[in-house]
Amino acid sequence: MRIVVGISGGSCGIYGVGLLKVLQELNIETHLVVSTMGEYVVKHECGMDLDELKGLATHYHNNKDLAAPISSGSFKTNGMIIIPSSMRTLAAVANGISDNLLTRAADVTIKESRRLVIVPRETPLSVIHLENMLKLAKMGVRIMPAAPGFYHQPETIEEIVSIIVGRALDQLDIEHNLLKRWGGV
């Protein structure tokens, strides 16, 4: 299995870090691309520099490298998760603006009819944000706001992160045991 992971500048870089750690534990090949603001947010919120973040991925691609393998549809992947996604990245993907590797890889994922999961992190949402999300959802993109459920009764930040990471993995049919499944009352 091969997954592209994008981290852009929305707050909650901890979700991207958590996803990479889980995919590493599951021995799933990852191709990481990070925006400039994504790098900043991970440093600010998680205390991790880019080299540490790269160490969690199988492969790292510079966001300016539009000739990277993940920029081509002939490079087969099982999908892509952008976690977190800024509204700028979401808008670029929704409108086909492939001006960097992250948005180009998302564009390729859509055009090749592969699964794309976007975890936007913004609140409140404007009409522009909602229209861009609707546009993507109509294309089959899975929009999964960073809004964890609490029926699991999480007690730590790590457990909250696991809920979002687990639900993102569910969207790509990746087996995990990060969260307790609802079984009713």
From TrEMBL:
Residues 1-172 form the Flavoprotein domain. Dimethylallyl phosphate binds at residues 151, 167. The keyword Flavoprotein applies. FMN binds at residues 9-11, 35, 86-89, 121. The keyword Flavoprotein applies. GO terms for molecular function: carboxy-lyase activity; flavin prenyltransferase activity. It is an enzyme of class 2 (transferase). It catalyses: dimethylallyl phosphate + FMNH2 = prenylated FMNH2 + phosphate. Its EC number is 2.5.1.129. Keywords: Flavoprotein, FMN, Prenyltransferase, Transferase. PANTHER family: FLAVIN PRENYLTRANSFERASE, FLAVIN PRENYLTRANSFERASE PAD1, MITOCHONDRIAL. Belongs to the UbiX/PAD1 family. Flavin prenyltransferase that catalyzes the synthesis of the prenylated FMN cofactor (prenyl-FMN) for 4-hydroxy-3-polyprenylbenzoic acid decarboxylase UbiD. The prenyltransferase is metal-independent and links a dimethylallyl moiety from dimethylallyl monophosphate (DMAP) to the flavin N5 and C6 atoms of FMN. This is Flavin prenyltransferase UbiX. It comes from Alkaliphilus serpentinus. The lineage of its organism: Bacteria, Bacillati, Bacillota, Clostridia, Peptostreptococcales.
